[in-house]
């Protein structure tokens, strides 16, 4: 099974950049090339004259901070709301028919114990 590619939006990347004050602009540019622009580590490494591993370290630094940023956003959005473990609150914009179907699936899943919920999703 192939590993998911790490990708970020420009707005997420720009949001976490000020939080990484000790990261040089060059390292940030390399991470942005991979995460936002979708360039391969090999291409970025060749252009900057460093190893793929060095680029991967830069990417990981930003990826971890973006994950923290997303977790903080979820925590803020869910503040004061008691959700079951593994559940999140989201805002969804979609056609009404799809939303009705989605609500029905959520209602069905909510009645299942957590151990069965995962199996329900995989169907």
Features:
elongated, mainly alpha, Arc Repressor Mutant, subunit A, 2 domains, 123 residues, 6 helices
**Category by helix and strand content:** mainly alpha
CATH class group of the largest domain: Mainly Alpha
Q: N- to C-terminal separation?
A: 19 Å
The amount of beta strand, in percent, is under 5%
The overall pLDDT, averaged over residues, is: 88
In helices, the fraction of residues equals 55-70%
Level-2 CATH architecture of the largest domain: Orthogonal Bundle
How would you characterize the largest beta sheet? none
Overall morphology: elongated
- What's the tally of helices? 6
Our count of domains comes out at 2
Rg measurement, Å: 19 Å
Any low-confidence stretches, pLDDT <50, length ≥5? none
Report the count of strand segments: 0
Give the CATH topology of the largest domain: Arc Repressor Mutant, subunit A
InterPro entries: Fimbrial_Adhesin_Reg (IPR053721), TrfB (IPR032428)
Protein name: TrfB transcriptional repressor protein domain-containing protein
Organism: Massilia eurypsychrophila
Keywords: Transcription, Transcription regulation
């Amino acid at each position: 099974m192939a590993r998911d590619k790490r990708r970020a939006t420009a707005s997420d990347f720009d949001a976490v950049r000020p939080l990484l004050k000790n990261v040089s602009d060059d390292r940030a540019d390399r991470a942005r090339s991979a995460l936002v622009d979708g360039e391969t580590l090999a291409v970025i490494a060749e252009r900057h004259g460093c190893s793929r591993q060095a680029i991967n370290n830069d990417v990981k630094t930003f990826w971890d901070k973006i994950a923290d940023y997303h977790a903080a956003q979820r925590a803020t959005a869910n503040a004061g709301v008691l959700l079951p473990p593994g559940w999140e609150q989201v805002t969804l914009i979609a056609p009404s028919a799809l939303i009705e179907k989605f609500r029905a699936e959520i209602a069905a899943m909510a009645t299942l114990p957590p151990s069965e919920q995962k199996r329900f999703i995989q169907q």
